[in-house]
Amino acid sequence: MAEQELKHLREMLLKQRREVFERLRRFESDWQALGDRDSELEEEAQKADMTLLFDQLDERAKEEIEDIDLALCRMAAGSYGICEHCENLIPLKRLEALPTARLCRECADMYEKKQKKSRRAREMLPCKGVPDEYRDLSDDELQMVVLERIRLDGRIDMEELEISCRRGVVYLEGLVPSEIEHQILLQILTDSMGFTSVIDLLQTSELVWEREDRAPGRSVSALGPEEALAYGVDTISEDVFETHNEGFPYSPPDRPVPEEE
Predict the structure, then answer these.
(1) Per-residue pLDDT, 219
(2) How far is residue 2 CA from its own chain's centroid?
(3) What is the mean pLDDT of each run of 10 residues along the chain (261 residues)?
(4) Which helix (H) or strand (E) element contains residue 25?
(5) How many helices (H) does the chain have, and how many strands (E)?
(6) Residue among 81, 63, 71, 84 at smallest CA distance from 253
């Protein structure tokens, strides 16, 4: 795919992401305005209906944001536009119509038919970036496995670290005290555990660990120079994914609180 086409699709994804947040903000504003009013019985019923609608809209919006985040993640990793089932290229026209597409038209049709025959509630397509040994785990189970693996490693301060898993994508949020721990964490997830879909929103801040109310503990930043050099702190990218196209940097999207783009 040409660099210009990829750039255009990325702009479409970011625009779609902003629109989802704006839609949620408008609906939430209307919902709060209704809640502030003195209401009669019929308006109480209307509030209940709107509360249910807001919850449903909120869940759909989360799924939309996750689809967009995953598409941006795959774009940066160089696997965007490749069907996750047959591994053929997804036509540009389909991507322009549906930038978050993970399947080509033929594989998407087969997937839909399979869902209809099962007569069950529609299942979300799991992320192909999940290693085979974890593919049958639920999001909660996968989160527990990841957290336990990091605890067993013992080199990362987890007090300010937040890790969540949704549809096979690992989300990193919160703080770690140093870039060394940041890179160790990414190495555990990508090299040791084999994940390829990681949304990295981590920040590093040593100041948080200097607060008097924190219990003293071992910091990885205190490692010897040889061990620190092994992680290439000065040369490793701050983000787990980099685009393979020059002049097309990847900026990981923020989640879930919308911020100015």
Answers:
(1) 44
(2) 25
(3) 90 91 76 58 54 64 84 85 92 94 91 67 57 86 93 92 86 89 91 85 73 50 50 43 42 50 48
(4) helix 3-36
(5) 7, 4
(6) 71
- CA angle 55-56-61, nearest 5°? 95
CATH topology of domain 3-118: Four Helix Bundle (Hemerythrin (Met), subunit A) (1.20.120)
Q: Which two tokens stand for residue 107?
A: 């594989």
pLDDT at position 235 is 41
- Cβ pair 167, 127 in contact under 8 A: yes
| CA–CA distances in Å: residue 249 to residues 11, 151, 258 | 13, 32, 21
Count the Cβ atoms, other than its own, within 10 Å of residue 121: 6
Fold entry, domain 132-230: Histidine-containing Protein; Chain: A; (3.30.1340)
**Domain spans, the chain:** 3-118, 132-230
The model's pTM: 0.51
